[in-house]
Amino acid sequence: MDWKLKKIYAGLLENEKGYVKKIWGEYNTVCLAYPNQYRTGMANLGFQTVYKLLNVQPSFLCERAFLPASGDDARFVSGTAGIFSLENQKSIAEFDILAFSVSFENDYPNILKILDSAGIPLLTKDRSGKYPLVIGGGISLTLNPEPLAGFFDLFILGEAEEVLPHFCRCFEEARRLGHDRSKFLKDAQKQANNIYVPSLYEASYSNDRKIRSVKPLETGLPERIKIKPPKDINLFSTEEVISASETEMEDMFLVEVNRGCARRCRFCAASFVYRPVRFRSRLEIIESIDRGLKIKNKIGLVGTAVSDHPELGRICEYIMNKGAQAGLGSLRIDRINEEMVDRIKASGIETIALAPEAGSQRMRDVLRKGITEEDIINAVEILAGKEIPNIRLYFMIGLPGEEEKDIDAIIELTKKIQHCIISKFEGKKKFRRITLSVNQFIPKPATPFQWCPLDDVSIAGKKIKKIENAFRRDKQIKVIHDVPKWNYVQALLSLGDRRVGEILLAVNRLEGNWARVLKEVNINPDFYVYRQKNFDEILPWDIIDLGVSKKALISEYEKAMKEI
User: Fold this and answer.
1) Cα–Cα nearest to 116, from 74, 71, 81, 70
2) DSSP element (H, E) containing 480
3) Any idea which of 157-171, 400-414, 426-440 has the lowest mean pLDDT?
4) C-alpha 553: how far from chain center
5) What is the DSSP string of 295-346?
6) Are 278 and 260 in contact (CB under 8 A)?
7) Cα–Cα dist 295/180, whole Å
8) Rounded mean pLDDT, 126-155
9) Which of 273, 223, 272, 264 is nearest to 538 (CA)?
10) What DSSP string runs through 70-123?
C-alpha cells in the first residue's frame, strides 16, 4: 500500500468519531465492504448498523472498505494496489470474511470490481479456502439475490439484528471444531432463517428460457429461504455509529424511527419486505437523539414511514427545545397539518418533500397511494401558508397502464401547486423553488407489480423531455431525473436470474462498457426487462419467502388492473 493512500486513509479516520480499531491476531476478522464510494457508504445507516453488530461480537474484528474515489482509480488497477481496509490498512484478501452491504442494484458491477482488484476469484466455485468467505446482505439482495448467486458463498437476508450474531456464533464454532467451509455452509443453511447458500441450490430452465425449477441439492435443506424479521425494534438502537465529514449527510446524526409501512403502495418494495410496520417508542428515539446531540446539532429522522409515527410532533418538539434542527425525508401528504409544520419549521427545516407519485387520480389509484388531489393541494396550502420556501415533488413515469394524458396531468398538477404557493406567498417572504424529481417506474420483486415490464427507455426519455420542456423557461421550477438507460440496467439486475451473472462477468471484463456487453453476451436482457411475466411461472426470487403469499400479490395486481 503506497504512502499516498495511507495518508488519505489517515485523513479520513482523523475526521471520524466512533470507529473501532482492534488489534489483529486475536479475532475472527471481517471486512465490511460498501460497493460504492466512502461518501455514499458512510451515509447508509444499514451499513453502519452491521459494522456495530459485528464489532460488538466479543471474538470478532470488523473493518471497512469502499470503492475507490474516481481520482484514486489509477492506484486500484486489478493486480497492482488491491483494496485495503480503512482501520488497519489490511488487504481485503487477508480477512476471514468479506461482507458486502448492498442497497442498490446498480452497484453490483462494483462488487466484482472490488473482488478483482483484491485478486480474489470472482466465482465461488473458483475460490479455495485460503480466500475470505464472501457474504452479502441488504435490501436489494433480500428482494432478489439470484443475479449474484455465482459470486457469493452465503447471503444474510432481511434485517440483520437477530440473524447476524447467530451467524457469528456458528462461524466461531465451526472454526473451533475445525470444520471446512463446505460443512459450515451446509450447517448454516440448515440451522438458521434468513441465510441462503446459493451453491446448495440448483436452477434448471425450460426451452422457452423460463425457470423450470429451483431445488436444494441435498435432503434436509429448506425448500425456500424463510425471512424472519425482529418483532420488537425497541430492543436495539439503530442510529449513526460513526460520524464523519465528507459524507452525503455529514451535517445530520441519523436516527431510525420505524420499519415497514402500513400503506402498502403497490410499487413499494419496503411495504412488503419490512413487514409488519413497527415504530420505535418516543423514549427510545429520544435516547438516540440525546446521544446524537453530543456530536451534531441536526438530527436526521429516517424510516419507511416517518410521518406515520404517532408521536412525530413531540419528537420534533423535543429536538427544537434542545436548540437543534430536525431533518426529515418525504412526508406522507395526508399526514401534514399546521401543528406538524409549525414544529418542523421551528426546527429549521426549509425544504419539504412530498410524493404524489402520479399526476392523475387514476394513476394514484392504480398505485394504491390513497390520496386525492384535494389532499395534495391542502398539504401545499399549509406548507406555503407557513412560508416553507422550498418544496420537492416526487413523480414516476412509465407506470402500468399509463397514457399520455397522465403525463399531462403531472404538468398540470405541478402548475396548480405553483399557483397555490404563489397566492399564499403573496406579500410575504419570497418562495424559492419547486424541485420536480421525475423517475422511471422500475418493477420490483415481492410487489404486486413484479410481473410488469419496464416501460421502453426511449419512450420514458420522451416523457421526461416533455415535462422538462413544459418548465424550461420557469426559473421557479427545476426538473431533475435519472438517466433512462441506467434504469434499464437496474431493471435487468432487479428482475434477472442466475444467468444474468454472465452479463456481470462481461461488464467487469469490458470495464463497464454495457453497450458492448449486451451485444456480445448470448443472453437477451429484454427477456427480463421488457417481458410481461405470467402468474404461473417461477420467478427468480421465489426461492425467498418474505411472508407475503403470491396469491395476495396477484390479488393486488388484479385490483390495480381494474383501476386501469
Assistant:
1) 81
2) strand 477-481
3) 426-440
4) 21
5) T-SEEEEESSSGGG-TTHHHHHHHHHHTT-EEEE-PBPGGG--HHHHHHHHH
6) yes
7) 44
8) 97
9) 223
10) GGGGGGG-TTTT--B-TTT--BGGGSSEEEEE---GGGHHHHHHHHHHTT--SS
Residues 6+ apart with CB under 8 A from 64: 19, 31, 32, 33, 34, 41, 51, 85, 86, 87
Does position 271 have pLDDT exceeding 90, yes or no?
A: no
Q: Which of 317, 243, 239 is nearest to 280 (CA)?
A: 239
Residues 382 and 344: beta-carbon distance below 8 Å: no
Q: Which residue has the cell 431510525?
A: 256
Residue at 29: amino acid letter? T
For residues 308 and 303, give the distance between their C-alpha atoms in angstroms, rounded to a whole number.
10
Element (H, E) at 243: strand 243-244
C-alpha cell of residue 113: 470490481
Q: Which residues, listed in sequence order, are joined to residue 279 by a DSSP beta bridge?
A: 258
Give me the helix-helix angle, 108-117 and 500-509, nearest 10°: 50
State how far Cα 386 lies from the chain centre. Answer: 33
Are 172 and 152 spatial neighbours (Cβ–Cβ below 8 Å)? Answer: no
Do 424 and 391 meet the contact criterion of CB atoms below 8 Å apart? no
Q: How far is CA 167 from CA 100, 145, 184, 531, in A?
A: 15, 18, 10, 38
Res. 275: pLDDT tops 90: no
Query: Is-contact 357 440, C-beta < 8 A?
Result: no
Q: Grid coordinates representing 192?
A: 438458521
- Report the alpha-carbon distance of residue 33 to residue 63 in Å, rounded: 8
- 496-524 pLDDT tens trace: 999 999 999 999 999 999 999 999 999 99
- CB count, 10 Å around CB of 317? 17
Ramachandran angles phi, psi of 109, nearest 5°: -60, -30
Q: Give which of 308, 218, 229, 317 is closest to 263, Cα–Cα.
A: 308
Percent of the chain residues past pLDDT 70, beyond the cut: 97
C-alpha cell at 16: 471520524
Among 206, 204, 230, smallest CA distance to 215 is for: 204
What is the Cα–Cα distance from 135 to 283, expressed in whole angstroms? 35
Domains defined along the chain, listed by start: 3-226 (no CATH), 352-564 (3.30.750.200)
43: Cβ contacts below 8 Å, ≥ 6 apart: 247, 248, 249, 250, 254
Element (H, E) at 493: helix 484-495
CA distance 409 to 393: 14
26 CB-side CA count, 13 A = 6
Closest among 551, 555, 552, 527 to 540, alpha carbons compared: 527
Grid-cell match 404524489, residue found: 356
Contacts of 468 (CB under 8 A, 6+ apart): 479, 481
Contact call for residues 255 and 301 (beta carbons, < 8 A): yes
Letter for the amino acid at 87? Answer: E
Place of cell 413497527: 278
